[in-house]
Amino acid sequence: MSGQGISKKLSLAATDRDRPLASPQVIVGANASHSDDGVREAEITDVSIIVCTRNRSEHLSRLLEQISRLPAPADWDIEVLVVDNGSTDATPAVAMGAPIPGMSVRHILEPRAGKGYAYNTGLAAARGRAFLLTDDDTQPQGGWIEGMCGPILRGEADAVQGGVRIAEHLERPWLRGVLRVWVAAVEDPTEPPEGLVGANMAFSREVWNQVGPFDVRLGPGAAGFFDDTIFGWAVEQRSFRIAYRPDVLVEHHFEADRLTVGAFMTAADRMAKSRLIALGPEGPATLRKLAVQAPGLALRTLTQMVRFVLRREPDPGFLSRYYRLCCWRAARSHKGTYA
Protein backbone atom coordinates (compact mmCIF):
# COMPACT_ATOMS: atom_id res chain seq x y z
CA MET A 1 0.00 0.00 0.00
CA SER A 2 1.44 3.33 -1.01
CA GLY A 3 2.05 5.71 1.84
CA GLN A 4 1.60 8.62 -0.50
CA GLY A 5 -2.01 7.69 -1.29
CA ILE A 6 -3.96 9.97 -3.56
CA SER A 7 -2.93 13.42 -4.74
CA LYS A 8 -3.53 16.04 -2.09
CA LYS A 9 -4.84 18.57 -4.62
CA LEU A 10 -8.62 18.39 -4.34
CA SER A 11 -11.24 20.35 -6.18
CA LEU A 12 -13.99 21.19 -3.70
CA ALA A 13 -17.34 22.74 -4.44
CA ALA A 14 -19.49 24.34 -1.78
CA THR A 15 -22.48 22.42 -0.46
CA ASP A 16 -25.70 23.36 -2.21
CA ARG A 17 -27.38 25.23 0.65
CA ASP A 18 -30.41 26.08 -1.49
CA ARG A 19 -31.73 22.53 -1.50
CA PRO A 20 -34.80 22.02 0.72
CA LEU A 21 -34.12 20.44 4.10
CA ALA A 22 -35.09 16.77 4.08
CA SER A 23 -37.04 15.58 7.11
CA PRO A 24 -35.16 12.93 9.10
CA GLN A 25 -36.54 9.40 8.76
CA VAL A 26 -36.73 6.63 11.36
CA ILE A 27 -36.10 2.99 10.51
CA VAL A 28 -36.95 0.54 13.27
CA GLY A 29 -35.46 -2.94 13.38
CA ALA A 30 -33.39 -2.51 10.21
CA ASN A 31 -32.41 -5.82 8.64
CA ALA A 32 -28.81 -6.48 9.62
CA SER A 33 -28.31 -9.20 7.03
CA HIS A 34 -25.50 -8.70 4.54
CA SER A 35 -26.77 -8.51 0.97
CA ASP A 36 -25.32 -7.14 -2.25
CA ASP A 37 -28.70 -6.54 -3.91
CA GLY A 38 -30.70 -4.92 -1.12
CA VAL A 39 -30.78 -1.46 -2.74
CA ARG A 40 -32.45 -0.81 -6.08
CA GLU A 41 -30.46 1.11 -8.67
CA ALA A 42 -32.96 3.98 -8.52
CA GLU A 43 -32.29 4.36 -4.78
CA ILE A 44 -28.50 4.58 -5.03
CA THR A 45 -26.94 7.80 -3.72
CA ASP A 46 -23.34 8.98 -3.97
CA VAL A 47 -22.32 8.92 -0.30
CA SER A 48 -23.69 7.40 2.89
CA ILE A 49 -22.19 8.89 6.06
CA ILE A 50 -22.68 6.33 8.84
CA VAL A 51 -22.40 7.16 12.55
CA CYS A 52 -22.95 4.47 15.19
CA THR A 53 -23.82 5.82 18.62
CA ARG A 54 -25.01 4.82 22.06
CA ASN A 55 -25.91 7.22 24.88
CA ARG A 56 -23.65 10.05 23.75
CA SER A 57 -26.22 12.54 22.56
CA GLU A 58 -24.07 15.60 23.31
CA HIS A 59 -21.19 14.27 21.23
CA LEU A 60 -23.63 13.29 18.48
CA SER A 61 -25.20 16.76 18.43
CA ARG A 62 -21.81 18.41 17.98
CA LEU A 63 -20.87 15.97 15.23
CA LEU A 64 -24.06 16.49 13.23
CA GLU A 65 -23.73 20.26 13.59
CA GLN A 66 -20.17 20.01 12.27
CA ILE A 67 -21.25 17.85 9.31
CA SER A 68 -23.88 20.45 8.44
CA ARG A 69 -21.10 23.05 8.05
CA LEU A 70 -18.81 20.96 5.86
CA PRO A 71 -18.35 21.70 2.15
CA ALA A 72 -19.23 18.98 -0.35
CA PRO A 73 -19.59 18.85 -4.13
CA ALA A 74 -22.93 20.41 -5.00
CA ASP A 75 -23.90 17.62 -7.40
CA TRP A 76 -23.38 14.80 -4.89
CA ASP A 77 -26.40 13.06 -3.35
CA ILE A 78 -25.49 12.49 0.33
CA GLU A 79 -27.32 10.80 3.17
CA VAL A 80 -26.48 10.62 6.88
CA LEU A 81 -27.39 7.49 8.82
CA VAL A 82 -27.39 7.69 12.62
CA VAL A 83 -27.41 4.11 13.90
CA ASP A 84 -28.73 4.14 17.46
CA ASN A 85 -27.40 1.12 19.35
CA GLY A 86 -30.02 1.07 22.11
CA SER A 87 -29.61 4.57 23.53
CA THR A 88 -31.66 5.63 26.56
CA ASP A 89 -30.67 9.31 26.47
CA ALA A 90 -31.66 12.08 24.04
CA THR A 91 -30.05 10.42 21.03
CA PRO A 92 -33.33 9.84 19.10
CA ALA A 93 -34.35 13.48 19.55
CA VAL A 94 -30.92 14.70 18.46
CA ALA A 95 -30.96 12.52 15.35
CA MET A 96 -34.51 13.44 14.40
CA GLY A 97 -33.94 17.13 15.07
CA ALA A 98 -30.87 17.44 12.87
CA PRO A 99 -31.89 18.30 9.31
CA ILE A 100 -28.73 18.99 7.32
CA PRO A 101 -28.81 21.21 4.22
CA GLY A 102 -28.45 19.14 1.06
CA MET A 103 -28.44 15.79 2.89
CA SER A 104 -31.13 13.36 3.99
CA VAL A 105 -30.92 12.10 7.59
CA ARG A 106 -32.10 8.69 8.75
CA HIS A 107 -32.31 7.45 12.34
CA ILE A 108 -31.87 3.67 12.46
CA LEU A 109 -32.56 1.65 15.59
CA GLU A 110 -30.40 -1.41 16.32
CA PRO A 111 -31.22 -2.70 19.83
CA ARG A 112 -28.67 -5.52 19.89
CA ALA A 113 -25.72 -4.23 21.91
CA GLY A 114 -22.41 -3.99 20.09
CA LYS A 115 -20.90 -1.74 17.48
CA GLY A 116 -20.57 -4.68 15.07
CA TYR A 117 -24.35 -5.04 14.99
CA ALA A 118 -24.72 -1.28 14.53
CA TYR A 119 -22.19 -1.23 11.68
CA ASN A 120 -23.91 -4.11 9.89
CA THR A 121 -27.39 -2.68 10.27
CA GLY A 122 -26.35 0.76 9.07
CA LEU A 123 -24.40 -0.57 6.10
CA ALA A 124 -27.26 -2.90 5.11
CA ALA A 125 -29.59 0.12 5.02
CA ALA A 126 -27.14 2.49 3.32
CA ARG A 127 -27.77 3.56 -0.27
CA GLY A 128 -24.42 5.10 -1.18
CA ARG A 129 -21.84 4.09 -3.72
CA ALA A 130 -19.29 5.15 -1.11
CA PHE A 131 -19.67 4.56 2.62
CA LEU A 132 -18.02 7.07 4.97
CA LEU A 133 -17.74 6.03 8.62
CA THR A 134 -16.77 8.03 11.68
CA ASP A 135 -17.38 7.95 15.43
CA ASP A 136 -19.82 10.11 17.34
CA ASP A 137 -17.02 11.81 19.31
CA THR A 138 -15.17 13.19 16.30
CA GLN A 139 -15.18 16.56 14.54
CA PRO A 140 -14.47 16.18 10.80
CA GLN A 141 -12.40 18.97 9.32
CA GLY A 142 -12.92 20.95 6.10
CA GLY A 143 -12.87 18.95 2.87
CA TRP A 144 -13.58 15.69 4.72
CA ILE A 145 -16.45 14.39 2.60
CA GLU A 146 -14.80 14.96 -0.78
CA GLY A 147 -11.35 14.02 0.49
CA MET A 148 -12.51 10.64 1.77
CA CYS A 149 -15.08 9.73 -0.86
CA GLY A 150 -13.76 11.46 -4.01
CA PRO A 151 -11.04 8.83 -4.66
CA ILE A 152 -13.66 6.07 -4.40
CA LEU A 153 -16.27 7.73 -6.61
CA ARG A 154 -13.61 8.59 -9.22
CA GLY A 155 -12.40 4.98 -9.29
CA GLU A 156 -8.94 5.83 -7.91
CA ALA A 157 -9.30 3.74 -4.75
CA ASP A 158 -11.60 1.14 -3.21
CA ALA A 159 -11.10 2.28 0.37
CA VAL A 160 -9.60 5.31 2.08
CA GLN A 161 -8.01 5.63 5.51
CA GLY A 162 -8.08 9.19 6.77
CA GLY A 163 -6.21 10.88 9.58
CA VAL A 164 -7.32 11.05 13.22
CA ARG A 165 -5.95 13.93 15.28
CA ILE A 166 -6.23 14.00 19.06
CA ALA A 167 -8.11 17.11 20.20
CA GLU A 168 -5.74 19.72 21.63
CA HIS A 169 -7.28 19.72 25.10
CA LEU A 170 -6.61 15.97 25.38
CA GLU A 171 -2.92 16.11 24.50
CA ARG A 172 -0.51 15.19 27.27
CA PRO A 173 3.33 15.33 27.35
CA TRP A 174 3.47 11.61 28.12
CA LEU A 175 0.91 10.61 25.46
CA ARG A 176 3.27 9.09 22.91
CA GLY A 177 4.12 5.87 21.13
CA VAL A 178 1.69 3.00 21.57
CA LEU A 179 -0.61 5.04 23.81
CA ARG A 180 -1.47 7.34 20.91
CA VAL A 181 -2.42 4.30 18.86
CA TRP A 182 -4.60 3.06 21.70
CA VAL A 183 -6.69 6.24 21.53
CA ALA A 184 -7.01 5.80 17.74
CA ALA A 185 -4.58 8.50 16.57
CA VAL A 186 -3.74 8.16 12.86
CA GLU A 187 -1.05 10.72 12.14
CA ASP A 188 2.07 9.21 10.59
CA PRO A 189 2.67 11.08 7.30
CA THR A 190 3.64 7.95 5.34
CA GLU A 191 2.94 4.77 7.34
CA PRO A 192 -0.72 3.68 7.46
CA PRO A 193 -2.18 1.95 10.51
CA GLU A 194 -2.77 -1.77 10.87
CA GLY A 195 -5.95 -2.64 8.99
CA LEU A 196 -8.40 0.26 9.10
CA VAL A 197 -9.36 2.68 11.88
CA GLY A 198 -13.10 3.21 12.09
CA ALA A 199 -12.94 6.77 13.39
CA ASN A 200 -12.22 7.90 9.83
CA MET A 201 -12.54 5.33 7.06
CA ALA A 202 -14.42 4.99 3.79
CA PHE A 203 -14.96 2.17 1.33
CA SER A 204 -17.01 1.34 -1.73
CA ARG A 205 -20.23 -0.63 -1.90
CA GLU A 206 -18.30 -3.34 -3.75
CA VAL A 207 -15.85 -3.66 -0.84
CA TRP A 208 -18.76 -4.05 1.57
CA ASN A 209 -20.45 -6.65 -0.63
CA GLN A 210 -17.30 -8.77 -0.80
CA VAL A 211 -15.78 -8.24 2.66
CA GLY A 212 -18.69 -7.61 5.05
CA PRO A 213 -20.22 -8.10 7.50
CA PHE A 214 -18.30 -6.90 10.55
CA ASP A 215 -17.52 -9.50 13.21
CA VAL A 216 -20.06 -8.86 15.98
CA ARG A 217 -17.81 -10.57 18.58
CA LEU A 218 -15.39 -7.64 18.35
CA GLY A 219 -15.49 -3.90 18.93
CA PRO A 220 -17.20 -1.70 21.55
CA GLY A 221 -20.08 -3.42 23.30
CA ALA A 222 -18.45 -6.82 22.73
CA ALA A 223 -14.78 -7.81 23.14
CA GLY A 224 -13.84 -4.17 22.76
CA PHE A 225 -11.40 -3.80 19.84
CA PHE A 226 -10.23 -5.01 16.41
CA ASP A 227 -13.60 -4.90 14.61
CA ASP A 228 -12.33 -2.29 12.14
CA THR A 229 -8.81 -3.76 12.09
CA ILE A 230 -9.77 -7.20 10.82
CA PHE A 231 -12.21 -5.66 8.34
CA GLY A 232 -9.22 -3.73 6.98
CA TRP A 233 -7.13 -6.92 6.89
CA ALA A 234 -9.82 -8.56 4.77
CA VAL A 235 -9.90 -5.56 2.40
CA GLU A 236 -6.12 -5.88 1.94
CA GLN A 237 -6.25 -9.65 1.47
CA ARG A 238 -8.73 -9.27 -1.38
CA SER A 239 -6.30 -6.89 -3.11
CA PHE A 240 -8.58 -3.87 -2.95
CA ARG A 241 -6.78 -0.54 -3.32
CA ILE A 242 -6.52 1.37 -0.03
CA ALA A 243 -5.51 5.03 -0.22
CA TYR A 244 -3.88 6.53 2.85
CA ARG A 245 -4.93 10.16 3.37
CA PRO A 246 -3.64 11.34 6.77
CA ASP A 247 -4.24 14.92 5.64
CA VAL A 248 -8.03 14.35 5.48
CA LEU A 249 -8.75 14.72 9.17
CA VAL A 250 -11.22 14.16 11.91
CA GLU A 251 -10.42 15.52 15.35
CA HIS A 252 -11.01 12.98 18.13
CA HIS A 253 -12.77 14.31 21.26
CA PHE A 254 -12.83 11.17 23.37
CA GLU A 255 -13.58 11.27 27.11
CA ALA A 256 -10.62 12.39 29.23
CA ASP A 257 -11.06 9.46 31.62
CA ARG A 258 -9.54 7.24 28.93
CA LEU A 259 -6.18 8.81 29.80
CA THR A 260 -5.82 7.27 33.27
CA VAL A 261 -3.51 4.37 34.18
CA GLY A 262 -6.50 2.22 35.08
CA ALA A 263 -8.26 2.93 31.79
CA PHE A 264 -5.16 2.03 29.78
CA MET A 265 -4.71 -1.21 31.75
CA THR A 266 -8.33 -2.16 31.12
CA ALA A 267 -7.87 -1.35 27.42
CA ALA A 268 -4.73 -3.52 27.29
CA ASP A 269 -6.62 -6.50 28.71
CA ARG A 270 -9.53 -6.06 26.30
CA MET A 271 -7.19 -5.58 23.33
CA ALA A 272 -5.42 -8.85 24.16
CA LYS A 273 -8.71 -10.75 24.36
CA SER A 274 -9.95 -9.10 21.16
CA ARG A 275 -6.74 -9.93 19.32
CA LEU A 276 -7.08 -13.57 20.33
CA ILE A 277 -10.52 -13.68 18.68
CA ALA A 278 -9.35 -11.70 15.64
CA LEU A 279 -6.42 -14.00 14.93
CA GLY A 280 -8.56 -17.14 15.02
CA PRO A 281 -6.78 -20.51 15.35
CA GLU A 282 -3.38 -18.81 15.09
CA GLY A 283 -4.19 -16.54 18.02
CA PRO A 284 -2.67 -18.43 20.98
CA ALA A 285 0.70 -19.05 19.28
CA THR A 286 0.90 -15.47 18.02
CA LEU A 287 0.09 -13.99 21.42
CA ARG A 288 2.69 -16.19 23.09
CA LYS A 289 5.29 -14.76 20.72
CA LEU A 290 4.25 -11.27 21.77
CA ALA A 291 4.48 -12.29 25.41
CA VAL A 292 8.18 -13.18 25.18
CA GLN A 293 8.81 -9.47 24.71
CA ALA A 294 7.50 -8.83 28.24
CA PRO A 295 10.87 -8.98 30.10
CA GLY A 296 11.41 -5.72 31.90
CA LEU A 297 7.83 -5.60 33.16
CA ALA A 298 8.91 -5.66 36.81
CA LEU A 299 11.26 -2.70 36.36
CA ARG A 300 8.73 -0.74 34.35
CA THR A 301 6.09 -1.50 36.98
CA LEU A 302 8.34 0.19 39.52
CA THR A 303 8.82 3.11 37.11
CA GLN A 304 5.05 3.37 36.69
CA MET A 305 4.52 3.44 40.44
CA VAL A 306 7.02 6.27 40.86
CA ARG A 307 5.54 8.28 37.98
CA PHE A 308 2.04 7.79 39.33
CA VAL A 309 2.96 8.86 42.87
CA LEU A 310 4.90 11.90 41.69
CA ARG A 311 2.85 13.07 38.71
CA ARG A 312 -0.18 10.81 38.28
CA GLU A 313 1.05 9.94 34.80
CA PRO A 314 0.83 6.68 32.86
CA ASP A 315 4.16 5.23 31.72
CA PRO A 316 4.09 4.05 28.06
CA GLY A 317 6.88 1.53 28.67
CA PHE A 318 4.99 -0.13 31.50
CA LEU A 319 1.71 -0.23 29.60
CA SER A 320 3.22 -1.73 26.43
CA ARG A 321 4.75 -4.52 28.54
CA TYR A 322 1.55 -4.94 30.49
CA TYR A 323 -0.27 -5.45 27.19
CA ARG A 324 2.11 -8.29 26.34
CA LEU A 325 1.44 -9.82 29.74
CA CYS A 326 -2.29 -9.62 28.93
CA CYS A 327 -1.58 -11.38 25.62
CA TRP A 328 0.16 -14.20 27.48
CA ARG A 329 -2.74 -14.52 29.92
CA ALA A 330 -5.29 -14.53 27.08
CA ALA A 331 -3.37 -17.26 25.23
CA ARG A 332 -3.00 -19.31 28.41
CA SER A 333 -6.71 -19.12 29.19
CA HIS A 334 -7.74 -20.01 25.64
CA LYS A 335 -10.37 -22.81 25.60
CA GLY A 336 -9.83 -23.95 22.02
CA THR A 337 -12.95 -22.53 20.37
CA TYR A 338 -13.58 -19.44 18.23
CA ALA A 339 -17.27 -19.89 17.55
Give an overview of the whole structure.
The protein contains eleven helices and nine strands. With 339 residues, the protein is α/β, with parallel strands linked by helices. Helix 8 (261-279) crosses helix 11 and helix 9 runs antiparallel to helix 11. The longest helix has 19 residues, at 261-279. The radius of gyration is 20 Å and the shape is globular.
- How many structurally independent domains? 2
The CATH superfamily of the largest domain turns out to be: Spore Coat Polysaccharide Biosynthesis Protein SpsA, Chain A
Assign the CATH class of the largest domain.
Answer: Alpha Beta
Helix content, binned percent = 25-40%
- End-to-end separation in angstroms reads 32 Å
Summarize model confidence as the mean pLDDT: 86
CATH fold annotation of the largest domain: Spore Coat Polysaccharide Biosynthesis Protein SpsA, Chain A
Strand content: 15-25%
Strand order, biggest sheet? 1-4-3-2-5-8-7-9-6
